[in-house]
Amino acid sequence: MVVLDGKKTSNDIKNEIAEEVKSLKKNGYRAPHLAAVIVGNDGASLTYVGSKVRACERIGFESTLISLEDSISETELLDKVNDLNNDDKIDGYIVQLPLPKHIDSQKILMAVDPSKDVDGFHPTNFGRMALNLPTYISATPHGIMELLKRYDVPTEGKHTVVIGRSDIVGKPISILMGLKTKPGNSTVTLAHSRTKNISDLIQEADIIISALGVPNFVKAEMVKDGAVVIDVGITRVKDDSEKGYKIVGDVDYENVANKSSFITPVPGGVGPMTIAMLLTNTLKAYLQRIN
Question: Is 74 in the same domain as 167?
Fold first, then answer.
């Protein structure tokens, strides 16, 4: 059993980007610039955006954090998005989700310039991904593919079962795993809350990618020997520790790990890869702009 170490891999990627940025600066180029828009005071969002800002500092990126009150109107937020679209100093930016209920998230994401959409959420970028054209792939699916690639996990001809059909993870990773690429080239089944006999389906899988958000949903008896198990789930579960909670994935890691050929831990698996791939997308956007 091989543990797919997302923490180490993400650090490797950040170091590679830092070296490239150092070389660019040495040759007289400015630093890449990532901006993040956060609306309101959601604790998880603030933590996540804060980690993005720190990662930018570490690798030599410029970063701008735009904090807005949750009372902001949809029109005002659209104006801010338009400002970022037209700011030549910003290479890429993200609008942190979730947004307040009075704002149509889809309308905001649609307003983002696809050439600056380093989150890869715009339909233009999603469509280009589906057609295997150069684009920005959303960070979590991109991170999964990069882990599979760097650990040389065999995927061609395998049966991949993706659990969960969200626009951010489930749908894109199901498309990516079916593309004629390496990694990829697998036969994909997309399972969800309405899938019948889901346990039987998972038992047939050579590769399981779970993005359901249900703690310990994937049990050892659902997993065949030698399966590859990718756990995207991150849920806070109350416990008696000083923090008062622990982070748990979709997979019953202790019991499933012994049956798997490759497995991601939670925390320290897919999670750290998300920020690394956001930085990768930002560097890509920057290079396209300066060229």
Answer: no
Has residue 234 been placed in a domain?
Answer: yes
Measure the CA–CA gap between 102 and 69, rounded to whole angstroms. Answer: 13
Q: Name the pairing type of β-strands 187-191 and 159-163.
A: parallel
Looking at the structure, tell me whether residues 66 and 100 fall in a common domain. Answer: yes
pLDDT tens across 259-287, in order? 999 999 999 999 999 999 999 999 999 99
Q: Are residues 264 and 170 in the same domain?
A: yes
What CA–CA distance (Å, rounded) separates 49 from 121? 17
Together in a domain, 143 and 265: yes
Q: Could you tell me if residue 278 is inside a domain?
A: no
Give residue for tokens 């400002």: 83
Residues 247, 183, single domain; the answer is: yes
Is there a single domain that holds both residue 75 and residue 33? yes
pLDDT digits (tens, 9 = 90+) for 28-46: 999 999 999 999 987 778 8
Catalytic residues: 52, 96, 119
Half-sphere exposure of 70 (CA within 13 A, CB side): 11
Structural domain range at position 97: 28-113
- The Cα-based distances of 65 to 18, 68, 93, 210 in angstroms read 20, 10, 10, 31
Q: pTM for the full model?
A: 0.95
Whether residue 57 sits in one domain with residue 100: yes
